[in-house]
Predict the structure.
Amino acid sequence: MIKLTVVMDETRFEQSVSIQETTTKEPTALPLRRVSRRERPVTLHDLTFEELEERLTGAGLPRFRADQIFRWTYAQLAEQYDEMTVLPKDLRARLPELLPLTKLEPVRAVETDDGQTRKLLFRTFDGEHLETVLMLYADRTTVCVSCQVGCAVGCAFCATGMMGLTRNLTTGEMVSQVIEAAREARALGRSLTNIVMMGMGEPFQNYDAVLKMVRILHDPRGLNFGARRTTLSTSGLVPFIDRLAGEPFQVKLAVSLHAPNDALRDTLVPLNRRYPVGELIDACRRYVRTTGRRVTFEYALIKGVNDSDAIAAELATLLKGLLCHVNVIPLNPTPAAPFERPSPERIERFAEVIRQHGIPATVRYSRGVDIAAACGQLRTEHEQQIAESNQTG
Ligand code: SAH
Ligand code: SF4
């Protein structure tokens, strides 16, 4: 059952819990499927401009075709080669075989928040499912992109983490999500202004493919999407924070902290045992020194776990002197995890204590709670429906 209303208070919270109880039982156990690199199809969305040029000239086509195709794909958002009327007809007929545009197949779309949030579910060439969310705000249009099917990090409150990792997404699969969302936005009279890597998966465990996505979307001959408007969100893989600081792209960094000390963070983000809080914050300080850019800390607020005034003060002390901003995200309760969202008063108070200590903090209600828009929940629900219909049919 899908509810299409949004109420930013405790009522909505209760509604969303009841939806989850009626639609979900246990997290789906998925078979781990391995697809070798050789088996993965190469699509147009996988290629940088230079790689496209190489591919086309290798097939005996003139170099200038790359410019035309790239422009039509990213600036015009053509859905098929046939729309690229600048190309000769016989070439348009040949290209889908030579280089498919995309292999991502739309499966389902649901909307909520009065149509302000649209969640898109896709099927990959090997039958996996992944999610993309388009969020419309008064001043911006943001797409939330997935970078993996599942996730290996296994955070205690996260629906994606409960699936485990099936595989990394390819650059093409990530670019395709952005392009699909850009088309959806265009149909609504909008254009995309922000990309956040906050869908399924840990971007720093698929680092090269994610950075290649940034490069392709950034190319002025195509979408020309400013790197500054792209945010990579990580659960804290320290070596990649340092690596990102050295990249030419000025992407934004968000770090999912959720706790100010190791004893607590160990229980929420298992990766903390490898990269403890002190090392993580040191890496953030190096990142700010090198890039001059602010770090955003995400903090999923969980009732009775990490939401006290004392913890807020500890968090503010930890972040003292660091160019940063804290996003307090009231938890989206997930089936199979025992955690709850704190009361609205507690949520506001937590953010207030951080601010009183001089650290900027904002409460951000994540969009589309009532369509299971929290990380990985729609996909879990869809897999479950498939499993159930297989059992009954
Ligand atoms: N793996 C990356 C990016 C994807 S998750 C990361 O962890 O940063 C995007 C954000 O959603 C993270 O801050 C994550 O902690 C948060 N998140 C995941 N599940 C959530 C839930 N049930 N409620 C609130 N926030 C959640
Ligand atoms: Fe993975 Fe991020 Fe979910 Fe943690 S919160 S399990 S890192 S997707």
